[in-house]
Amino acid sequence: MSSEAKVVVERFFYEAINDRKLEILAEILAPNFRGNILEYEQTWNTREEITGMLGKVFIAFPDYHQEIHDWIVQGEKVVARWTTTGTHQGPYNGIAPTGKVIHEHGIDIFQVVEGQIVAHWVELDVLGIFKQMDAVTVHRDET
Description:
143 residues
């Protein structure tokens, strides 16, 4: 099952995200799919919700692209460590376009059952994204 699970997750990254073929999500996400971005405490309870979220990301970052650096596959679980680049050209989480190129990194964990993704957990550097857009300032105590 593990190699089949990886193929499904590869389609998520390479076809749905990098090729912008969001229609394949109806095929690779299970009807009972659940997803989470842990830093935002954001969840998706349907295919339509994650499709809508990705659509907003592609408006904010029209050149959004993910590169996978590492895969870990065990049974139903697939883990991908990735980096993303994109130019902030549309509104993103209430932040007006800045024109800045954003470099983001993270780790996704997927659970694949019977050829479909049933669960998806995302860990990413949200603070780093906001810092790159000059949306937050981080002060360091030099003492």
